TrEMBL record:
GO MF, one example: glutamate 5-kinase activity
Subunit architecture: Can form homodimers/multimers.
Gene3D superfamilies given in the database record: Acetylglutamate kinase-like, Aldehyde Dehydrogenase, Chain A, domain 1, Aldehyde Dehydrogenase, Chain A, domain 2
Name used for this protein in its record: Delta-1-pyrroline-5-carboxylate synthase
The organism of origin for this protein: Esox lucius (Northern pike)
Keyword annotations of the record: Amino-acid biosynthesis, ATP-binding, Kinase, Mitochondrion, Multifunctional enzyme, NADP, Nucleotide-binding, Oxidoreductase, Proline biosynthesis, Transferase
Amino acid sequence: VFFFPLSPHSPISPLSHFISFAHRGELCQAKRIVVKLGSAVVTRGDECGLALGRLASIVEQVAMLQNQGREMMIVTSGAVAFGKQRLRHEILLSQSVRQALHSGQNQLKDVSVPVLEARACAAAGQSGLMALYEAMFSQYSTCTAQVLVTNLDFHDDQKRRNLNSTLQELLGMNIVPIVNTNDAVVPPPEPNSDLQGVISIKDNDSLAARLAVEMKADLLIALSDVEGLYDSPPGTDDAKLIDIFYPGDQQSITYGTKSRVGIGGMEAKVKAALWALQGGTSVVIANGTNPKVTGHVITDIVEGKKVGTFFSEVKPAGPTVEHQAEMARNSGRTLATLRPDQRSEIICRLADRLVEKEEEILAANKIDMELAANEGKLSAALLNRLSLSPAKLGSLSTGLRQIAVASQDSLGRVLRRTRLAHNLELEQITVPIGVLLVIFEARPDCLPQVSSLAIASGNALLAKGGKEAANTNRILHELTQEALDIHGVQEAVQLVSTREEVEDLCRLDEMIDLIIPRGSSQLVRNIQRAARGIPVLGHSEGICHVYVDSEANADKVIKIVRDSKCDYPAACNAMETLLVHRDILSTPEFDQIIDMLRTEQVKIHAGPRFASFLTFRPSEVKSLRTEYGDLECCIEVVDSMQEAVDHIHRYGSSHTDVIVTENEDTAEQFLQQLDSACVFWNTSSRFSDGYRFGLGAEVGISTARIHARGPVGLDGLLTTKWVLRGNGHTAADFSEQGTMKYLHENLPVTPPRCLCMWN
C-alpha cells in the first residue's frame, strides 16, 4: 500500500488537462486508453508462469480497439512470474544434471528450489514476456514496443519529456507501447515518498495512473482479480459492488486484503484511480480473471456497459438504480401487507388523478410529441402510441378501476388446503413475485397500467420508459407516487430515469425477480438475450394469422380482416398473414377481400403458393415469418383447415390466430389443435388485449409456455407459497417407528387473509 497525501483541494493537482467523462455512456468516445494488467490477471494460480488463455483474449480486445483507430497502451505485470518459471526450470535442470553426474545413478533424490529473488526473476522474465506479447499481437497485424521505466523517469524533467516523446511517437506510428517498471533495478518503495501532488511509482497501479495522466489518456482500465470496488471486503455477507465511485466516498468503504500476487491492493488501486481521475483520466476497475467475461471485459467497458466500478467526479442528483431497486423492494413488502381495500383505494386514487390532472398530462405529452416530431426518428405508428388524448386518459382511468375491483381477492387467496395429519394443515396461497422491471418504449399509458397491476398484486415496480415520453412519464409517475403515499408506500413504484442501458438493468439478478418488456420485437429479443438469471415474460414477435375457411361468411370475413389488419397495424395483435382456403380464390368473395385491402391502402405480399396462381402478382414475400407492424400483410393459400394449422405452427409466433368459418366442427378442431396463446373463432385478432378481456389492463402478452400466457393481467403477476401449520410435528413421527400416519385430506379453501408476505 502506498501513501497518498494529495487531497482533492490540494493547491498542486495532478497534470490536469481536461475533464474526465461523467457517465459510462461517454466512454465510447475514449481515444487514448491505458489498460493495466495486474499480477493476478497475468499470472497463473501457482504464480509460476503466465495465464496464456486470459492474456490471449486481452490481447485480442486491445488489438481490436487499436484497429478501430484508438491509441492503446498496456501497463503489464508478469515479468517476475515468467522469470520465476524460467529460473526454477533452469535450477531444477542444473541440480538434476549435477546430481546425476555425482551419483552415477539414474534414480535422483528430490531436489529443492531455493527462494528466488524478485529482481533476478524480473531480469530473466522481461525478454520472454515481451516476446510473448509480440507473438500474440502479430496475429492481429499489430506492432508492439517495450518500455521499461522507474520512478526517476517521472521525477527527472528531462527523462519525463523523453519518455513522453517516445510514447507519443510510438502511438503516432500505430504501435502499442507495453510498459512495465524495470523490476530488475527498481528499489523497494519507501513510505511517504510521494511528492506533493505527484504519485510515486511503487506498483503498476501507480505506474498506470501516472502514465495515463502524463500521456493525457481518456480512459484507464485497471484489471484485477475482483469484480470492482466493494463497500466492504469482498466475500463478506453484506459486501455490495459499487457501480460508480465518487471522490468523496472514500470514508464509506472498508478495504480487505490485497490479491494473492502483486504488491498493491484495492486501497492502492483506489488511490491511484482517484489521482488519475483528478488529472482528467476516467477510470474503471474490473475483473480480468473471470472466464465468463474476460473475453469481452475491455470492449464492454469501452462500449459503456456496466462492468466493474466506474470512477466519476459527477454525482447524479437522484438515487442509483440499485438504490431504487432496494427502496422498491422494502416499500413493496409493506405494500403486500396492506388490506385489499387499501390497495384498491390507492388504485382508485390514481384513476381519479388521471382525470383531474388531464390538462397537465396532455401538456407534458404535447412537449414529448413536438420533440419527437422535430427529431423525426419515430414512425407514424410510434407517434400514435406516444400520443395521449382525453379519450385515452378516460379509458385508462376506467381500466384502472377494473383493476381496483379485481384486487380485492387476488393477494393471499388460498388455492389449496390439505390436512396432512391431525393438527397439521398445509395451505398454498398467492403472493407477489417481488420486484418487477417493466421496460416500455414510446407508450406512456403503460406506466399507470403496470403501476396499478403491480399495486394490486403487491409487487414493487421499476419502470423504465423510453426517453421519447420522458415528460409524460415524469408527471404520471408523480401522480402514482402521490396515490401510493396515502398509505405510506410511495417508494414501491420507481421510475428509472438514469442513463442505464437496458442490458445493464438486465444484469441486476439479485434485485429484480421478473422482467416484462413492452415494445418492439427487437426490444424483446434484446432483453431476452441480455437477461442473466432473471425470467422474462413477453413475446418477441406478433405474427398473427387469420384463416378464411371455405365455409366462411363473406360479410364476416370483410369485417374481421379489415379490423384485424387496419384498426391498429402497429399493434402486436394485428394480422400479419391472411390464409385463404384454395376453394375461395376464384370467387367474388375473394375479390371483395382484395378490393377492401386496396381501399385501406394495405400493401400485399404474395406467399409462394398464392403467387403461383397469379399472372400479374404483387411482390413475393421474402419470409413467411414476418411481422410488418404497418399497413402490409402476406396472403397465402392452403388446401384445408389442417394445412392452415400446420402453416401457423411452422411460421407463427404463438401469439393470436383466428379462423373464420360457419362450420362449428371445423372451428372446434382449429381451436383445439392450434397451440397459440390466443385462438379465436369469427372474431378479430385485436381482441387479444387485457382491457378487452376484462383484466382491466395488461403488463404484456406472453407467448411462453409458463403459468402466464396470452394477455397477462393481475393473476399473471402472482406466484404462490406454501404455509404449514403444526403443533410440534416432526418427520420422525411419520416413520415406520413413528406414531402418526399421513391423512392427505383435501379441505375447502378459505377467504384470503389480510396479511401476506413475499415468498
